[in-house]
Design brief:
globular, four-stranded antiparallel sheet, 9 helices, 10 strands, 303 residues, 2 domains, alpha/beta, Rossmann fold
């Protein structure tokens, strides 16, 4: 009698693929790190790592490249979550690179977001990481859609989309020469809706700003820009206090919320299912200018 194979749900299949990729990184790479910002995608990555390696410790530290301009709710959540897991958290800041002179801003108000690539490369050199595991997804942005799951970076940390390795039959090659690097993306094939469904299924905690809350904003360049010490209202702008939530989080100077009443997972799932614009397209101001395009930043060593 033939025993039928178990049929995996959509989320089970995505999770199983991500677990397999993480274990491939652990098996092939000598000194990997898991990028963890406290954002929703990296929270999912932590749960995948738990399922891949618990009850043992993770075979890699957590690494965050901090611009110094991150939302305080997210930074606090990052530290709390790492402590709860008992895993080592390494934080390196763009401000450190600025003090060393390896990052020089054009002006004080320039976004530090694109300069994270410099700090990341310095951290890779400092600790000798041969692989950084990230939570990027192909549905986020057209440049990310070109990524392999094991994305090869040369000795300068640069990404060449024409110089990548084939990944036929889910066979991954993470071998590199000294100085070269792999960026591994276990949730490449997930969508924003998949992420929220996984968060709901696993009952994962998130920073509060992912849920609808009142926040002062101004309408600028077609986006809702939060009013902070770093992003004050400009002359002539009208400050409104409205209910918003963040679909993605990052540097305060380039991450905008969306108007929303979704204050629960169920409401966010319904809102996400109806969305017609990607989360980065709707809320990441730095993706909307050619000089800071995602593809150009990735070629310079960005995540």
């Amino acid at each position: 009698m033939t025993v039928p194979h178990a049929i995996l749900s959509h989320l089970d299949a995505l999770e199983a693929e991500a677990i397999h990729i993480m274990r491939e990184v652990a098996g092939q790479c000598a000194n990997p790190a898991l990028l963890f910002s406290g954002g929703k995608d990296s929270v999912c990555m932590l749960r995948v790592a738990e399922k891949a390696f618990r009850p043992g410790r993770f075979p890699f530290p957590l690494l965050h490249i901090d611009t110094g301009h991150n939302y305080p709710e997210v930074v606090q959540f990052r530290d709390t979550r790492a402590a709860e897991l008992g895993e080592r958290l390494i934080v390196r800041s763009v401000e450190d690179s600025m003090r060393r002179g390896s990052v020089v801003l054009k002006h004080a108000a320039e976004s530090r977001n694109k300069h994270q690539s410099v700090t990341l490369m310095e951290a890779i050199e400092e600790f000798g990481f041969d692989c950084c595991i990230g939570g990027a997804r192909r549905d986020e942005e057209k440049a990310r859609a070109k990524e392999r799951i094991m994305s090869f970076r040369d000795e300068f940390g640069q990404w060449d989309p024409k110089n990548q390795r084939p990944e036929l039959w889910d066979l991954y090659n993470a071998r590199v020469h000294k100085g070269e690097n792999i960026r591994a993306f276990p949730i490449s094939n997930w969508t924003e809706l998949d992420v929220w469904q996984y968060i709901a299924r696993e009952n994962l905690a998130l920073p509060s700003i992912y849920y609808a809350h009142l926040r002062p904003v101004v309408r600028r360049q077609g986006a809702l820009v939060p009013i902070t010490a770093l992003t004050p209202a400009q002359p002539g702008e009208i400050v409104e206090k409205i209910r918003v939530r963040f679909r993605t989080v990052g540097d305060i100077t380039c991450t905008a919320p969306v108007a929303s009443d979704a204050d629960s997972i169920e409401k966010i799932l319904a809102e996400t299912a109806a969305a017609t614009i990607t989360e980065r397209g709707a809320t990441r101001l730095d993706d909307q200018t050619s000089d800071a395009s995602m593809e150009q930043r990735k070629k310079e060593g960005y995540f």
